[in-house]
Protein 1
Amino acid sequence: MTAGSLTVARSGRQRWPWGVLLWPLLLLICLIPGVLPRLLTPLHLGELTPFDPPLWRLTLTHLGLVALSTGIVLALGVPLAVAVTRPKREALRQLAETLVGLGQTVPTFAILALAVPALGFGWQPTLLGLIVYGLVPVVSNGIAGLMAVDASALDAARGMGMTGRQRLVRVELPLALPVLLAGVRTSTVYNVGTATVGAALGAGGLGEPIINGLSQQNTALVLVGAVLSALLALSLDAVLSLFAPRE
Amino acid sequence: MIELQGLEKRYGNSFAVRDLNLEFAEGELTALLGPSGCGKTTTLRMINRLIEPTGGRVLLRGQDTQTLKPETLRRGIGYVIQQIGLFPHLNVAQNVATVPDLLGRPARETERRVDELLDLVGLSPAEYRHKKPAELSGGQAQRVGVARALAADPPVLLMDEPFGALDPLARDKLQDAFRDIQRRLKKTVIMVTHDIDEALRLADRIALMNAGELAQFGTPDDLIHRPASDFVRQFLGEDAALRQLAGRRAGDFAHPSDPSGLPTVEADLNARSALGIMLREGSDALAVTEAGRPIGVLRWSDLQTSAAQIETVMRDKTT
Ligand SMILES: Nc1ncnc2c1ncn2[C@@H]1O[C@H](COP(=O)(O)OP(=O)(O)OP(=O)(O)O)[C@@H](O)[C@H]1O
Ligand SMILES: [Mg+2]
């Protein structure tokens, strides 16, 4: 019995999810200059001239936008979810849920278009759009996760003399973490897609080959952008899955 | 140890608890007994200020609990809630270590303490230390809940129907285990229950409540033999005396005498079943054996006068 549970514990710690590396690896291969053109040329979808700026630069810009927005979303969304789930704040919580739901129904393009007059062209309006969209799953999952925390565990925590802060840090956040993390993954993956739209506003990133391809009627160019952003999304999802608590 | 003075909790116009005056003696186990909704949980939670009273005072060793920070007060009082409330993301050892950690006790010392407590509640530390609450049975989880409440060695323990969620067999076992623990550690325990048998079995004193007020406060014998009102009599039921016998061992009543020719029972059999055997066998005395050896004779008259004697017998046993 004891020996058995020990083995389980050890193998659980040792097994590293190597599968996670698949998508980042594919992405890196596709970023080697010449690889994507060689793969796409046989399809006769259009001509691919050497990229300027190079694809890895576009990918990094894209990644930077998404990472920055996710960081800001976490910094805003988690405290917001915590704040509205404190006792006696039902009204505030409902308001937050309504607003977040509303954010989801406004089309991406509308937010970006509205942001341009205020912030001008460039990466700033795109970042704003990504933050607004990214907040939706993080806040709503954060609220759902915190609300789902076992009431009896919280009661016990209070009865044992934990302060509100200790309950939050030691009980609520750890228990809400899996649901919150699922929201972060959704938010990040969506934003990789949303960020391509930013290229239309001059944000750069992997939307650039897509937009150029569309205007030049070069499907191959569109495919390059689409494949790379899809691989980026899958890579980020895989990497984020590492943070989820494993059994 | 703990004194309630005119304690009151009012919700709107209705009283959950009303003018409650009680004193819980040091080292005793007091059962808060009463029908559903009579205010037991409210009373218990006013002691560690999970609920703030609307009137009256709670004194802990003579000190008004309102003068203490609620967190400080609670860390000094063990608390077992009915739903157990183990932390699902922490393993058994981490759950038990909660209060010592909050108090900043050294980790090494706490680790030793955790193992000691798991042993005490009958769970082998090596096997259970690293299990998650989801891997425990209901009874095991209850045991961990009790160990967690005892972890910082608080002089006072509040328990809200700690054995409520168990099947009768597991409950009996855990009750026995807890009674032993209580005898050994001499904690001041206040235990909420609506189970009369549990109260009769475990409690030194019973505070019987009805509709937010105290109906009677006394020893189990007081309530059974000297009920203060019709409510007390009715609540305990006609077979209260039998119920009390059910919580005692036949061996506790046996006196040295000649057992020849009498029907034989084991000392561990409960006294109520022994009485049943007397009725069945048509005999007013039984031979009592322990581990196969005769230890004495149990007579009908011993059971009849149990009330007065049990306590002296038990005292003899423990000293
Ligand atoms: N937050 C509250 N608001 C209004 N009434 C309440 C509240 N909490 C408890 N009550 C009322 O106070 C009374 C006592 O409740 P309490 O929980 O103390 O009962 P109890 O004796 O523990 O019952 P049970 O055996 O069912 O657990 C009940 O009538 C209940 O409806
Ligand atoms: Mg109750």
Protein 2
Amino acid sequence: MTELIQNREDFLKNLTEKLGIERQPVESHPFEPMNQLPHETLSGKTQDELLQVAKERVKKIHTNIVETKQADLEGIINELIGKWGNGKVLLPTDNRFKEVGLNQFDANDYANHSVDFDRAFWQKGADYREENIQTASEANVAVAFAEFLLAESGSIVVETHAGQGRSLHFLPTHYISIVPKSKIVPRSTQAADFYHEKRAKGETLGSAIHFISGPSNSGDIEMQLVVGLHGPIEVVYVVVEDL
Amino acid sequence: MGLKTSEKPLLERLKDSEKDVFMQKAVAKAQDAQWEKREGARDELGNWEQWRELGEQIRQHTIAYLPDYLEQFSDNVAKQGGKVFFAQTAQEAQDYVKRLIIEKQIKKVVKSKSMVTTEVDIDPMLLDLEGVNVMETDLAEFILQMDDWDEPSHIVFPSIHKNREQIRQVFEKKLGYKGDNEPVNLARCAREVMRKFFLEADMGITGCNFAVADSGIINLDTNEGNADLTISVPKTQVVLMGMERIVPTMKEAEVLDNLLARSAVGQTLTTYVTFAGKKAEDESDGPEDFHVVILDNGRSNALGTAFQSVLQCIRCGSCLNVCPVYRHIGGHGYGSIYPGPIGAVLSPVLGGYKQFGELPYASSLCGACTETCPVKIPLHELLIEHRRVMTNELGMQHGFDDFQMKVIGKGTSTPWMFKSAMTFAHAGSAPLSKKKNISVENMYDYGGYIDKGPGMVKGWTDVRDLPRPPKGSENFRSWYKNRQKAGDK
Ligand code: SF4
């Protein structure tokens, strides 16, 4: 299996023949949407109004929103972790912790700040694959930043980077998402636009982008909702008003 | 299992389904629950018709330029070091995965629910491989696997034909589960069993809701979180996708994710909406080895024909949930892994009329499927087109006339398919304000059934054109006879 793309030419030739077209570069037929509904829906709202929309929505997806000021953020998070019984807390290696004053979660500084739980960091680099996955599967809680909060669906958006892998969001039992209030947007449209533009500008994207709406769930047994299946069984969004 | 799920002739399968009262109740319950959620979610969004038009436009555009987008997509996967295999047939797709497993000496495979993996018969192949263990990680599929690989009965709820007690018994027998039959406890048991397996898995197999052409990534919509683990933990990932499941950019994927979640499960978005490809160099989890298998397997038969629009399908299952025939016979009755109205249109395209030519007749042509489809596939018109092609172009008339007669009950057998389609509440009896109680039976009152449509082949299908359905209590046959006498078509 050395060739990266196999059997393409014959396959596509069959399609073009059946369609009765010639192959063209995609730039020659850009998609022009017939309406702007995705952008019009929930447009023109203030951050406060969007937060209100999100607060209504999360009630339906078994998720809590806690509002706080930056000064109280640390206390709120420690309280949540305590409520869940402390234990191992998994953290991304992320400079934003320091920027918002959560030095206890800063990978370079955490040792100087004592807490009631064990902290483990998502280690940077491919060599730490097994170790990171193992830690995530043992973690009682994960705490990470949201890139966006989508008001309409009550979803947080996360993007992978070296210091924050994919399974950090899925293996721990509980999950806390820190959401700067300025990062609340109307809906998934704005998140898709953001990543679309980022790519268009030639910037590198994380290899995985997740929109996550609360805890995992399933209705597969007699259509009765069960909250908490593969992913976290409890999720809290902490919205920071002055960020 | 492949496309075909049963060797029995359709009439026999229908009789089996008719006897399965639990299944019918389960399907009815699922349909009614979905009805409320789905319509609620669409109402809440607003402008539903315009959203559908946008969805249709995206899908039509992509299919019209399918070769170009597939080329762009595969180039982008390759740019990241991923591999793309174009498979003309299910066998080619299966063989590719098999070679990969043998070459890489894979021991444990985790799968997340996908119709395409069933279509290419991945499971029996995996089970035949010495030393390879496989686990279905979607809860419904896990239940089916534990019950000796029972077949799925619904696109979105594959195990609705099983109740909690049946599931408890299966878990007790297969997993040594000692608890009660509460869904949450059953689910926790499944979580533990699967979690352990996940952590040891070296290959993940997923389907694909949408492939994003301009970035070479895959978009997956799920609720349970199993797909996200499947693309995180194992070092090797294989994506099996129908060739039509592609969109130009993340922007169009986002629109379809919205339509899909509202239509399939009545949610704003599914709990997890994920866009992911091969892991980046400096990242530690995610697939180091990333393979996408793009499958034709008969789909191209639809291109350039009246059936091209069937490739617009986003597998939301909505047409199943509004179908009175599906309500009565359930998924297994169709004998194809793609059941319901979409299955009745798609299966003959993929598998041919010889295997699936009866399915376009397993429909009341009420039009509810067309009306609910979020990407505006004219399903009931395509069912009629199938009949037309078979009758006029392929000269298959005789056999199907016979079939039609038998099903309709103009001869001797029971006309239950009809009855199931025709026991709506009377149009005047339920005001629109009673939205909460909408079900397949009374949807007419909600404006659910459409009244326009092309001319029908003569016979029982004319029923669709009738001005209003009979009262539930009225005997359909006498009513129908009266209409015929009156010449009122
Ligand atoms: S045909 Fe339409 S309604 Fe049916 S599953 Fe496909 S997209 Fe959904």
